[in-house]
Amino acid sequence: MHLVELSRQSHGGLRLDPARIGEQAARCHMVPLVISEFRRALADFPIVLAKSQETGRFAPYALMGLAPEENLFWDGTRLDASHVPLNLRRLPFAIGVDPQADGTSRNAVCVDMESPAVSEAGPEALIDGEGRDTAYFLGVQKVLHELLSYKLLTEQFVQTLAERDLIAEMRLNIVLEGGKPLVLTGLYGLDEDKFNRLPDAALAQLRQDGHLTPAYAMMLSTARIQSLIDRRNRLEARDRAWFQ
User: Is 64 exposed, middle or buried (0-12, 13-18, 19+ CB in 10 A)?
Assistant: First the structure.
């Protein structure tokens, strides 16, 4: 990865091929989410929490595979899901933080110049012939704006769950149809028993803070774990049939 700050002077002629983002998506078994997309994400993915090895803090993710670098929604050409997480849709762009001399910082749009989506033959441009942002780049900006707008709210939501001791480890012991055992560790979710015992005042506070809906979305999304298992079983069944 080689992130550089985007500028009209340096990157006005940049061409991109969004279809090639799939080369990165195909290797993502977990993708970070912000709470504004929880409702959309739960239609396809289990929404789980995972702990950063660097900071020890929890963050929410869409679980897309049952093993590292496995994306069970990638069909070889596209993501077979009704909702594509914002952190995939933004690629190869990102929001960077640029420290200023006075101690403050500013946000900057960056592009990964080593991404396979950056291609001289790409069908998409950033700026049209009249010097205006293209519809493609305006869409990217909208995605980045949503990610930035909900970053702090997402962190506050997770912090609230931690402070109320509502985070519990999920240990998934799975046996696939072929008899292969599979154990998933390092994933966390909401402790539904503790959540259901919250007093009315605590639930009212969660609702007031905008945390009740994403909490319910997380709990409802656990039903999608079986969908992941079904996808893995179908994949392995196809592999077995190929070699028979």
Answer: buried
What CA–CA distance (Å, rounded) separates 106 from 109?
10
Inform me whether the pLDDT recorded for 22 exceeds 90: no
Q: Contact 192/222 with Cβ under 8 angstroms? A: no
Question: Residue 118 in contact with residue 11, Cβ under 8 Å?
Answer: no
Per the CB < 8 A criterion, the answer to whether 111 and 141 are in contact is no
Measure Cα distances from 229 to 82, 146, 240 in Å: 18, 31, 16
Compute and round to an integer the Cα radius of gyration of the chain. Answer: 20
- Which residue type is seen at 218? M
Q: Is the pLDDT of residue 244 over 70?
A: no
> For 173, what's the count of Cα atoms within 13 Å in the CB-facing half-sphere?
0
Strands lying side by side in the sheet with 58-63: 30-32, 58-63, 47-51, 181-190, 167-175
Top-confidence residue, 25 or 45: 45
What's the pTM? 0.91
Lowest mean pLDDT among 55-59, 207-211, 237-241: 237-241
Measured distance CA(59)–CA(49) in Å, rounded: 5
Listed as own residue / partner, the contacts of 135-141 with beta carbons closer than 8 Å and 24 or more positions apart are 136/16, 136/18, 140/89, 140/90, 140/93, 141/109
- Say how many domains are in the chain: 1
**CA-to-CA distance for 32 and 22, rounded, in angstroms?**
16
| Structural domain range at position 174 | 3-243
Whether 191 contacts 168, CB under 8 Å: yes
